[in-house]
């Protein structure tokens, strides 16, 4: 027994103990304060020998070298032993550095060698575990490499997740406006092809000229280009109404292949193509339907391809061919046309085959192509079939003749908004037109500001808006002071398009064979119209034609006033900004008190200062001016 009451009998321990463990060092070896500080709770217990190494402590290197280095300074050896505790050899830097070796965690796992008898390390006598075949396989793995790979995989996963989140945020829609079909609420641009752009210097526009102006259409922000006269006639363009075929293009304009290319160019810019079909007097009666709509697959959502539909349609019924249906099939087979405005239907308003023909035409086009008719045609229909016809057409063209005064204009708007057109969700949308091939331009006899005022007012109306070519720059009618073109006076409102810049004119020819060349335009109006189109596209209060609530259509347009040449409109939509449109069609400036209608707002479009805060107690509006105000809530 030693003084710790631990047996030192070798036979009991089963191993041969070093002499340093069976005998206690002299207490005199240590100074009194060191002796007391070695074991605070047992002051009489001597410190272990300096060369003692704890069995669980990894090898610290060559013990002999450590002893040699420390033997030169006994005081240092004593101090190190007393302060660092069991198993620490003072002055041995080599052993300390081994702690930071890459494989220091596994130095107790060693393969057995001839010098490692009985589990003793040959250099320091450290207890170690021998590696045998019975050891698990993971012991031999390259754990440092595994840790590095795991770290980089984890880091890559974090970076990937952050990238996905950033991409999702970046692709979120900037607005949450109600979605509508492409032709609902958009802006159409109507073109008379012979007056738009000439490419062969014959003085007449052509389809290749339209192709060259595709970027102009894109810059306007329109959703569709509408060509109102491309078919052969006896003398195009002088008598463009007297068509001789609906399945060809007049040679002055080009070929069918040119039209197909034009459609493809528009589609690349997300713009649709709509054709006017002047069926009367080319068609003087309606034929019986050639297909049985009730026995064909549903085409409401274009779930039947056009080629398959045409095959089925030809095999359902026989009999006399339906001329208009054949025309529609022809252009569908050519591809590229996204809708048709069938003109002249008012001449067949009492035809008993009318309703069945309209059903067939719409079925032929499918759900995503437009079938348009005029308001004049709807007004002539018998009351029992009005609702059925409106269920099978997509757009109803309403002409606004603003030269008749604000009262007449207000009545037309009220009748369209509050009448039969907006009674049901399945009914057609309104298509507003101010100019056309049959109407004189507003700027004739008035200031160009009249065209701008009417165009801005038109763009504030619910539904789809149609801009006649040149109205965006207040293009005036052709001026013929010498009377050289009196025979084509009925075409003077179809004047050649004016382009800004000396190198972008309508034609390189000095004179036009059918119109006076001179026509003025106000190019500075274009920026104002572009701002208004952009405002319309992002504002549901403007482009939507009604508020749909529980399958009911509630008007979102109100004509507040139409007296004294002042037209005041208000547009709104739930949880969106409301807008007021104030137009002065008079010849004098006006100062209005509109506090009974509105309190304050911010000007967002018009010739007035944009972003200016206004109050309606004394609201000034100039002659032939339209001001668009975003109302404050």
TrEMBL record:
InterPro entries cross-referenced by the UniProt entry: GH, GH13_cat_dom
Alphabetic keyword roster: Membrane, Signal, Transmembrane, Transmembrane helix
Region annotation Disordered: where it falls in the sequence: 43-87
Residues covered by the Glycosyl hydrolase family 13 catalytic domain: 190-503
Key word Transmembrane helix present: yes
Transmembrane annotation, as ranges: 151-172
Name assigned to this protein: Glycosyl hydrolase family 13 catalytic domain-containing protein
Species for this entry: Culex pipiens pipiens (Northern house mosquito)
């Amino acid at each position: 027994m030693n003084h710790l009451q631990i047996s030192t009998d070798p036979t009991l321990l089963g191993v041969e103990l070093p002499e340093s463990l069976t005998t206690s060092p002299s207490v005199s070896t240590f100074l009194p304060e060191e002796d007391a500080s070695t074991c605070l709770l047992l002051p009489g217990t001597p410190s272990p020998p300096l060369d003692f190494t704890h069995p669980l402590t990894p090898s610290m290197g060559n013990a002999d070298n450590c002893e040699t280095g420390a033997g030169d300074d006994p005081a240092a050896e004593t101090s190190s032993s007393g302060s660092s505790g069991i198993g620490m050899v003072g002055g041995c830097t080599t052993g300390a550095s081994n702690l930071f070796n890459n494989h220091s965690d596994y130095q107790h796992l060693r393969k057995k060698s001839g010098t490692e008898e009985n589990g003793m390390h040959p250099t320091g006598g450290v207890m170690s575990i021998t590696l045998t075949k019975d050891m698990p396989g993971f012991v031999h793995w390259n754990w440092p490499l595994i840790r590095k790979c795991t770290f980089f995989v984890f880091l890559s996963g974090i970076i990937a997740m952050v990238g996905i989140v950033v991409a999702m945020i970046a692709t979120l829609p900037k607005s949450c406006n109600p979605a509508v079909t492409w032709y609902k609420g958009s802006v159409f641009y109507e073109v008379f092809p012979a007056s738009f752009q000439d490419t062969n210097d014959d003085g007449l526009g052509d389809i290749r000229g339209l192709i060259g102006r595709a970027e102009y259409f894109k810059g306007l922000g329109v959703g569709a280009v509408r060509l109102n006269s491309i078919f052969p006639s006896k003398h195009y363009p002088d008598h463009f109404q007297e068509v001789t075929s609906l399945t060809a293009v007049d040679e002055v304009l080009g070929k069918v292949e040119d039209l197909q290319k034009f459609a493809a160019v528009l589609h690349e810019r997300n713009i649709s193509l709509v054709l006017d079909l002047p069926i009367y007097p080319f068609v003087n009666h309606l034929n019986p339907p050639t297909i049985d709509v009730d026995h064909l697959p549903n085409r409401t959502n274009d779930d039947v391809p056009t080629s398959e539909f045409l095959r089925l349609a030809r095999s359902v019924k026989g009999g006399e061919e339906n001329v208009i249906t054949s025309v529609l099939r022809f252009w569908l087979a050519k591809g590229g046309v996204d809708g048709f405005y069938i003109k002249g239907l008012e001449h067949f308003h009492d035809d008993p085959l009318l309703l069945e023909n309209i059903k067939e035409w719409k079925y032929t086009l499918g759900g995503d192509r437009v079938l348009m008719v005029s308001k004049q045609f709807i007004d002539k229909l018998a009351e029992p079939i009005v609702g059925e016809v409106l269920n099978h057409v997509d757009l109803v063209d309403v002409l606004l003749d603003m030269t008749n005064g604000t009262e007449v204009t207000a009545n037309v708007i009220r009748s369209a908004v509050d009448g039969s057109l907006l009674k049901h969700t399945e009914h057609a949308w309104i298509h507003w037109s101010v100019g056309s091939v049959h109407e004189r331009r507003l700027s004739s006899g008035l200031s160009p500001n009249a065209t701008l005022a009417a165009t801005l007012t038109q763009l504030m109306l619910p539904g789809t808006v149609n801009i006649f070519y040149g109205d965006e720059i207040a293009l005036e009618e052709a001026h013929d002071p010498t009377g050289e073109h009196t025979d084509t006076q009925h075409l003077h409102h179809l004047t050649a398009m004016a382009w800004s810049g000396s190198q972008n004119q309508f034609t390189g020819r000095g004179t036009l064979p059918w119109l006076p060349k001179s026509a003025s335009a106000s190019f500075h109006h274009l920026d104002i119209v572009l701002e208004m189109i952009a405002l319309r596209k992002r504002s549901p209060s403007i482009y939507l034609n009604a508020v749909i609530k529980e399958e009911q259509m509630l008007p979102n347009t109100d004509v507040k006033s139409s007296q004294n040449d002042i037209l005041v409109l208000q547009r709104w939509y739930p949880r969106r900004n409301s807008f007021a449109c104030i137009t002065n069609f008079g010849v004098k400036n006006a100062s209005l008190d509109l506090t009974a209608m509105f309190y304050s707002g911010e000007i967002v479009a018009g010739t007035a200062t944009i972003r200016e805060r206004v109050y309606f107690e004394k609201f000034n509006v100039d002659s032939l001016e339209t001001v668009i105000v975003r109302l404050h809530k």
